[in-house]
What we know:
The structure holds 2 protein chains of 2 kinds.
Chain A: H1 6-13, H2 20-29, H3 31-46, H4 57-65, H5 77-83, H6 87-110, H7 118-121, H8 136-151, H9 158-180, H10 184-202, H11 209-217, H12 219-240
Helix pairs in contact in A: 1-3, 2-3, 8-9, 8-12, 9-10, 10-12
Chain B: H1 3-13, H2 20-39, H3 42-59, H4 69-90, E1 98-99, E2 109-110, H5 119-137, H6 141-152, H7 157-164, H8 168-186
Parallel strand pairs in B: 1-2
Helix pairs in contact in B: 1-2, 2-3, 2-4, 3-4, 4-7, 5-8, 6-7, 6-8, 7-8
Amino acid sequence: xxxxxxxxxxxxxxxxxxxxxxxxxxxxxxxxxxxxxxxxxxxxxxxxxxxxxxxxxxxxxxxxxxxxxxxxxxxxxxxxxxxxxxxxxxxxxxxxxxxxxxxxxxxxxxxxxxxxxxxxxxxxxxxxxxxxxxxxxxxxxxxxxxxxxxxxxxxxxxxxxxxxxxxxxxxxxxxxxxxxxxxxxxxxxxxxxxxxxxxxxxxxxxxxxxxxxxxxxxxxxxxxxxxxxxxxxxxxxxxxx
Amino acid sequence: xxxxxxxxxxxxxxxxxxxxxxxxxxxxxxxxxxxxxxxxxxxxxxxxxxxxxxxxxxxxxxxxxxxxxxxxxxxxxxxxxxxxxxxxxxxxxxxxxxxxxxxxxxxxxxxxxxxxxxxxxxxxxxxxxxxxxxxxxxxxxxxxxxxxxxxxxxxxxxxxxxxxxxxxxxxxxxxxxxxxxxxxxxxxxxxxxx
Lengths: 241, 194
């Protein structure tokens, strides 16, 4: 007799399963699966919705209103280009200067001079000890950040960049933990994630910086690796319980 | 999006701050409700809702209107509330409200509701509540969000996924993981769970 997994039975109890009929029939004849299914149902009953307190709208509006500045609509890009047409020569000059700097940088690199590493020595502490030693939260946050990177068309907002900074401060500790516990594959994935975070934290945001990051660092592939780590961590937690 | 909301957005963008009240009146309660499910307490829920409305206001010039305002604000709220929960976990100086006979806002103290139950029932209720809270605290913010919205608020999986900016399958997995963890957390009690 083929038994159903816990995940399949959770999906069944939440009415998210595509096999409701077969599962329902199986539960009538298999006491083992029926017990597990009832245990899941009981868990869902225990965590049924508690009442939610009603907020005081007037008080909240007064509090919010004090923080609102007057807004103006965002001007369209076309309008800006026309209005700032004189800026093209300046852009050309800036591009030329950038090329000169690149050539100079390459020259320094080839002549073996040690460069000041802004990414590492830029600002703030290199790591902070995470309050939560479990990696699950870190991987969840990593997944959300990479999804944001993979789906953003322009620059990332300040909150996301602040998140990247916080994750960067903690990531090195998780890399070390993974290495110490012999999980070299996990450490390698987290190290790659660290490179993405370092870039996000140090490079100035430009309209194409997120796209460049996606292409250069293969953030889609990294997201898949992070999900696999997340799943492995979940399984190991399940085994230990 | 209906006419009143479209007009309110237009007026806000023209510099009329008070027009934002229309959007707040319509959505603040549902936003606070979702924030409460994610943060688990009233004070943080209001803080997250306030922050979400402020962020939405400041981003309003870039609101593209390819989704409704309610979907957009809900997405901002979920992210804001998740960030707040993560911040609370990080912030070692944060202290939860303490229990006192006389509640005081200044001292961050609260009083546990007495109710009509006898001392034994009351004790059991408190134990059950604290066990439930402890079990929920074991979930990651994403698992907690996905689970509470799916199970308590009956939000479709696709909407949760869109709001959390993850795939539908990831949202499902987060809910399943949450239920599995909660079930294991409750195993030692009640005798009914295996």
